[in-house]
Automatic annotation (TrEMBL), chains A, B:
It comes from Chilo suppressalis. Pfam families: DFP. This is DNA/pantothenate metabolism flavoprotein C-terminal domain-containing protein. Belongs to the PPC synthetase family. The lineage of its organism: Eukaryota, Metazoa, Ecdysozoa, Arthropoda, Hexapoda. Gene3D superfamilies: CoaB-like.
Amino acid sequence: MTSSSWEEFFAVHLPPTDFEDNRSLLKEFCERHDQYGNKIVLVTSGGTTVPLEHNTVRFVDNFSAGTRGSASAEYFLEQGYAVIFMHRQKSLEPFTRHFSGQKLLDMLDIQERGPNTTITVKPDSVDVLAPVLLRYKAAHAAGAILYVSFTTVSEYFWLLRAACECLANLGPRAVLYLAAAVSDFYIPKDKVPTHKMQSGSGAPVIQLHLVPKMLAPLVNLWVPEAYVVSFKLETDENLLIPKARAALDKYKHKMVVANLLQTRHHRVILVSPEASQEIVLTREEVHAGVDIESAIVGEIVRLHAHHADAAPAPAPR
Amino acid sequence: MTSSSWEEFFAVHLPPTDFEDNRSLLKEFCERHDQYGNKIVLVTSGGTTVPLEHNTVRFVDNFSAGTRGSASAEYFLEQGYAVIFMHRQKSLEPFTRHFSGQKLLDMLDIQERGPNTTITVKPDSVDVLAPVLLRYKAAHAAGAILYVSFTTVSEYFWLLRAACECLANLGPRAVLYLAAAVSDFYIPKDKVPTHKMQSGSGAPVIQLHLVPKMLAPLVNLWVPEAYVVSFKLETDENLLIPKARAALDKYKHKMVVANLLQTRHHRVILVSPEASQEIVLTREEVHAGVDIESAIVGEIVRLHAHHADAAPAPAPR
């Protein structure tokens, strides 16, 4: 029932196999944008898994399609931020989130002329696709977005710490927008069986352990000057604000975006140490396809500007 | 620790909300193809989830991207079968499986001319996209594929039984290709908490229960004349064939496709009551991008033809 410390977690769980590659990518990305004086946001998105076996057939998953994170990344790009999009593999991504694979194939017309076959987007789909495609191409051409992905909670933590190490140099110009649904529970490495659990031996009992709260070292040690936003997803309205306030008291970061599972696409509450502010989409906005993330990001960008301006000028390097 | 009976499972777990819609679609699809004397295969694909809360934030998931099922569906279509593609929501689908969203966007060129803006597929991507697009369009135009989707193990079982009820009319012309990774374990409805588990109350213990083996009523009662293929995924080579044989002995169906998690993309063993046959891709085939599902489906189609021919002629209706 014990929750291990964060140092213990990193000591016991080895880095993922592609960790050094990702660390290089993060380093290059942050240094490049730091040079230009850009603001960088780390957007985490999607759920983490907790493997129940070493050869993973089964795992405990946290629900998250990546809707919030992938939409938010687009709005941060629009606001001129460089974006590290750290997401669960196969979860929704900025730009492509607007179109399922079938929807894209259905947009295409093929003109078969042997070696001169051409494929074009149907005229009535161009209106829908063109604006997204232009923003996608602009972001990629500018090198304004870096994609890194995780699956397990351990991979998530390794990447998170590596990203923080790079972002620390940006001081108050960095935003951490921690929208990923990270498991509160896990099974320590030495308690995970090697092979698939066999149903013949009866139904298993899974003993979960508490995951260390990484927000504590993140705020205090890893990126002490950054503007850190965490998320709180609950299903019980009565717990929502109290739990958001408790998190702010405990971790001393800048904001909790609090939301209920049932209404999260049209209502959130931005809770900061000083105030709390509700954002609600009207029925008309919902019907018109307005993303609530546009408003959330807009408000965070405004508050982040205050934060960055109020910070003492950086020492010359 | 008790495993409930399948009748009990359906009595306790209500049908999913879109169940009647899906049942109508299945009925219409089967009747239409039955009329033309077509063969129909039900391909199940992707993993099922077991919710740990009613307002689902967390669930236990079975690992499966849907690679096997989505590829196999394409090869069954190629062999002239009508395909019911019953898949986990967001898992891979036939045709679109070849291209991620980003890969598709990267294939596109945009020519901005205001209201006459056009979007075309880059010439060097046409070669890759055209054959898939043509097969996709042909299958859809012919109404040869029906997509139905599930998420939880309970939704899966409801859909499976409904599909069987429609397929029963086809007698031996139906194939069931049960490639989905169905959970062996679940938490009965009355044992699932309503709200999100709180980490403050310590780490929870999850008591899983055994899922009833639906293959028994499926083979004996629901589609007794169909050609039924199940799948066995193990991580331990020593268990592979014994467990496949044990399943055939117990359920009396036609074939188990046995595979190891580690090598499943280039090696499977088709185990039938009479024989077992290994299919292995050569290194060259793997490099050339050959799908092992092409060989699996080819062999099953051959055996199914024997099965259908050997069956007594249907009584006139």
